[in-house]
Amino acid sequence: HISPLLKLSIQIAAHGIKVTFVTTEVEDGAFMETLPEEQNSITLISIPHCVDEDVRNDALKTVETIESIRRVIPVYLEDLIAKINQSADEEKISCVITDTSYAKFYDLILCNSVYELDSSVSKLIPNALPIGPLLAGKTWPQDSTCLAWLNRQPAASVIYVAFGSSTMASAKQVEELALGLELSGHPFLWVVRPNFMDGSTVKFPDGFKDRVSGKGKIIEWTLQEAVLAHPSVLCFVSHCGWNSTVEGVTMGVPFLCWPYIADQFSNKNYICNVLKTGLELMKGENGITTRREISSKINTLISSDVINSKALHVKDIVRKSSNEGGSSFKNFKSFIEHIKSL
């Protein structure tokens, strides 16, 4: 959840409010690389990680990781808040923003969503304040190498493939995905973390990289918003994590949905059945999504005028909400006024 919280912090700081961002030592290095240099009003504080590395890196132990954090982190936060408030500095902590682990203590619930797309849900949640989409903006570092490659591709031609920061796949599934992208015949940009293949080094099919060298690009990381906003991107093969969902919807990119765990399945339903801006990739009897399913769904998606039209329509709704006078714009202004009144 670091990415949206950092984006929120930058927006808060832009209104003259000092922000202390608390993260774990494990995330510290990567976090600092993405923090814009001019954000002097954001202070980063690291606290020890309470979960062993083998547990953190196992996607199947997500619940165990969350429960460990819930038990240990509050102690560090209480001590930190007390220390800051007892310092000689006149500025005290007036507001604490956390994720949903501590929902029962909330005065407001900030949602990285848009009221017009979630009005029925928002009405059911007391004090819900949709302020999305939370975007990085132009102040964030850019991946110039990746964008330069995209600049050389035809408009609306590239399949963008990314599965978030923790999703893992079997060796067989990696093979089928690689061959499915090749079979589709389209240029592709594929984000492959070093531990994407069941936590081990990714191995591609024999000769795959040579065969796709003129058409495909494989990278370990990129600034996703910039990629999704690029005119050469045609569709988004995604695990449907909420951050990715918001970014793809905001940029008007249709989805091929490949959920793995937790809310990703409900997000998939939201994309395919509510917004109607994507299709689901289906698994076979052995639990593997085949190369032919991948290639077929890519071509079905990109040839669907209805889905592509829906994606652009939703993009327009989202953009209007964040423009001056829009629902998210007003909600965020109300939130800033609330903080300043404390």
UniProtKB/TrEMBL annotation:
Task: List keywords of the entry alphabetically.
Answer: Transferase
| Signal peptide from the UniProt entry | none
The species this protein belongs to is: Gossypium gossypioides (Mexican cotton)
Instruction: List the Gene3D superfamilies hit by this protein, alphabetically.
Output: Glycogen Phosphorylase B
Tagged with keyword Transferase: yes
Looking up SUPFAM superfamilies in the UniProt record yields: UDP-Glycosyltransferase/glycogen phosphorylase
Q: Per UniProt, what is one GO molecular function of this protein?
A: UDP-glycosyltransferase activity
Protein name (Swiss-Prot/TrEMBL):
UDP-glycosyltransferases domain-containing protein
